Amino acid sequence: MTFLGAGPGDPGLLTLRAVEALALADVLVGDAPVLDVVRAHAPADVCTPDLAADIAAAAASAAAEPTVPGPAAGTAKGAAPGADSGASAVVSQLVMASARSGKRVVRAVAGDPGLDSSAAAEMLACAQAGIPFEVVPGVAAALGVPAYAGVPLAGDVRFVDAATASDRCWSEVGASDATLVVSTTLQTVAAAAAELIACGRKPDTALTVTVAGTTTRQRTWTATLAGIAAELKATKALPTPEGPIAAIAVVGERTAQRRHLSWFETKPLFGWRVLVPRTKEQAESLSDQLRSYGAVPHEVPTIAVEPPRTPQQMERAVKGLVTGRYEWIAFTSVNAVKAVREKFEEYGLDARAFAGIKVAAVGEQTARALVDFGVKPDLVPSGEQSAAGLLEDWPPYDPVFDPIDRVFLPRADIATETLVAGLVELGWEVDDVTAYRTVRASPPPADTREAIKSGGFDAVLFTSSSTVRNLVGIAGKPHNVTVIACIGPATAKTAEEHGLRVDVMSPEPSVHALAQALADFGTARRLAAEEAGDPVTRPSERRPGARRRRV
Q1: Structural domain tally of the chain?
Q2: Pairwise pLDDT comparison (485 vs 78), residue with the higher score
Q3: Which residue spans within 240-354 are E strands per DSSP?
Q4: Which letter does DSSP use for residue 333 in this model?
Q5: CA 105/CA 3 separation, integer angstroms
Q6: Which of 139, 163, 182 is where one domain is finished?
Q7: What is the pLDDT of residues 395-420, one digit of tens each?
Q8: Is 63 part of a structural domain of the chain?
């Protein structure tokens, strides 16, 4: 049995020990937001009980039983008497039942389990029942959120839980000069500020309030104790009543350093929803790069890959590869590598079949796919990562040094003739083989299509002309507030032909250069807003009729 701290929200803050424990879990117990953080590290078949349903069922059962009215001693202000203890009891029973069955149970909680009262009660229940357990600490929200908000905590720091703080606690922290970290909600932070003023803190004491801390939805307000209520009202931060929104407030002089130390919310694409028209597998490294800029990538495949209609040509070429028909094999895409690899596996072959054959790859991603296959490319473009760049480095055929004059070129059915024509001009014979077909993918879900057309995405990355045509075909044309970024002139021309305004052009035909160009655009946009004294907003927040984003 493992009690595991999932941290304040950023999956990157999970400890190595937490990842190890999750990988071995048979049962994973936690609230939905916590499961979103940890689920990726658990086995695909891990059991995740529906806590909300179990707790609701237990509450309904309890409500049906007669109760004896009476005061609920020790109940926090605004809380339903016995609500938390009842939920904790249901979870404790579930956890212990799973543990007794011999399953490896991981109970995941937000922040650190040692600071969670419900987790503490569950640990005690396990101890009393003789169930062994371990604790994997996590980053507490009271520590992690200020760090992401750019507010350093040093010196005399005191922590307050506004929901359970007594009058004596407020009096003590109100009379002190310590930096205060207050765990509260967005709806009650103004009341907590008023409590501190009443207990002796100066009304002009600075504070910051952060919600959704450590996630790309993070937002921080800076004000004074006396002015925080007006600030939240002026910025329309308070949502319609949908339950409390957790917040971390930091009170004291150190909040002034946020102006210089705000590193997270000032990332170039912070909070931007970026549409990546690729499959999750193809977009993995690109999406990781976008996340490093603070963006939220959303992969939408625009093409699907299918086998060639007549496989005989591919079969002959692969057999010729083994029998020494070719001097070179040139891969122009990751899909080409995958197609050849699958054919190899069908024939019981592996990377050793490439012995004595020179291998070329167009681009770094294709080269990485070959390395994963166990093949190190002999030739990768030193300059432009494209067919033209490969041709610039490709050696001409020399009958003295090249015993064979033939090149095997496995690729898509819609590939251009640039590479074939260039190789022929260099004196090579080319077997241009259709290794796979590209067809238009199925339309994305309705909510994604609506977001594309209504401006719900802040940017879209077009990596080829076909991604432009296919995305418009399966999902509609992106809204005019969406930033359009294109990998090169040909792609930009296609985008313009479809009525799109191209805002960003990659300096070279590389997906990573394209992502960097979009990040540079975001940085320039932020600086322009700051210089003009305007609020820094995402493109989607400026579309006509757009509502302020709910946290």
Answers
A1: 4
A2: 485
A3: 246-251, 273-276, 296-299, 303-306, 328-331
A4: S
A5: 9
A6: 139
A7: 999 988 888 999 999 988 877 788 99
A8: no
Q: What is the pLDDT of residues 409-459, one digit of tens each?
A: 998 887 778 899 999 999 999 999 999 988 888 899 999 999 999 999 999
**pTM assigned to the model:** 0.77
Q: If we measure between CA atoms, which residue out of 278, 351, 322 comes closest to residue 514? A: 278
- Domain end position, chosen among 118, 139, 160: 139
Domain hosting residue 329, numbered range = 306-440
Question: Do 251 and 355 belong together in one domain?
Answer: no
With contact defined as beta carbons under 8 Å apart, do 375 and 344 qualify?
no
DSSP H or E run through 447? helix 446-454
Q: Which amino acid is at 492?
A: A
One domain for residues 121 and 241: no
- Asked if 142 contacts 8 with a C-beta cutoff of 8 angstroms, the reply is no
551 within some domain = no
Strand order in the sheet with 179-185: 157-161, 179-185, 246-251, 206-211, 219-224
pLDDT at 65 (0 to 100): 60
Do 314 and 369 sit in the same domain of this protein? Answer: yes
Angstrom distance (rounded) from CA 89 to CA 124: 11
Compute how many other C-beta atoms are within 10 angstroms of the C-beta atom of residue 294.
Answer: 19
* CATH number of the domain to which 104 belongs: 3.40.1010.10
The pLDDT value recorded for residue 57 is 64
Handedness of CA 45, 48, 49, 50 (dihedral sign): negative
Here the CATH number for the domain that contains residue 156 is: 3.30.950.10
In a domain, 255, yes or no: yes
**Whole-number Å distance between alpha carbons of 253 and 431:** 72
Residue 266 lies in a domain: no
Tokens (6 digits) for 441: 């993918």
Under 8 Å between Cβ of 550 and 521: no
Q: Taking a C-beta distance cutoff of 8 angstroms, is the pair 463, 469 a contact?
A: no
Q: Are residues 448 and 337 in the same domain?
A: no
Residues 319 and 253 in one domain: no
The pLDDT, as a whole number, for residue 204 is: 96
Note whether 149 and 210 are within 8 A (CB): yes
| pLDDT score for 139 | 97
Report the distance separating Cα 464 and Cα 332, nearest Å: 14
Give per-residue pLDDT as tens, 148-192.
Answer: 999 999 889 999 999 889 999 999 999 999 999 999 999 999 999
